[in-house]
Structures are given as C-alpha cells and as structure tokens.
Amino acid sequence: MAFKICGPKSVLCMLILSAMGVVILSVVGILFRFNCATFAEDLMIEEIEEDFVTKMNDRYKELAYNCLIAAGLYGITLGVAIWQYNLNRRDGSMDALF
C-alpha cells in the first residue's frame, strides 16, 4: 500500500537537497579519509602533544566516518523522495508544476 506523504513541491525540494547532500558529504568524507590538509582546522585538537599525529589520524578517520554516515542518511532521504516523486507523478500532481 503506497500513500503520499509529501506534495509535489516539497518532493522536488527534497530531491534536490538530498541529492546535493549525498554528493557533498561523500566528497567531504573521502577528503577526510585521505587526510586532506584543508580540513586541519576542523579536527578540533587543542594541544600539540607527543601523540599528536596519532590523534590527528584518528580524528580524520572519525570525521570521515561521520560524513559518510550522513551521506548514507541523505541517500535514504533521496530514496524516499524518488518514491514520493513517482507516486505524485502517477497521481497527476506533478503535471501542475510543469
């Protein structure tokens, strides 16, 4: 049983935002995974200690993991948006937008 949750305008907004979220967070996650120096300020390591490099690498991995999880959640949202888009298109609601 399929039911509409969102209208046609909110579905288009959700499609665009979730697609952008997947792309952007995936790229940022990959850059964190390869220890991109541009994101060094985002590591939030306050003190330089003996094991600074180890803490830095661990923090890069943690942030990469978090970005990729968020990209996956945006992917789920994109799937829901595609599902709702197809329901709205079958219903004829999308015709009024174009």
UniProtKB/TrEMBL annotation:
It holds the Pfam family V-ATPase_su_f. The keyword Membrane applies. It is a multi-pass membrane protein. One of its GO terms (cellular component) is membrane. It comes from the Eukaryota. One of its GO terms (molecular function) is RNA endonuclease activity. The chain crosses the membrane at residues 12-34, 63-85. Its main location: membrane. Signal peptide: none annotated. Keywords: Membrane, Transmembrane, Transmembrane helix. It is found in: Membrane. The keyword Cell inner membrane does not apply. PANTHER family: RIBONUCLEASE KAPPA (PTHR31733). Belongs to the RNase K family. This is Ribonuclease kappa. It comes from Trichonephila clavata.
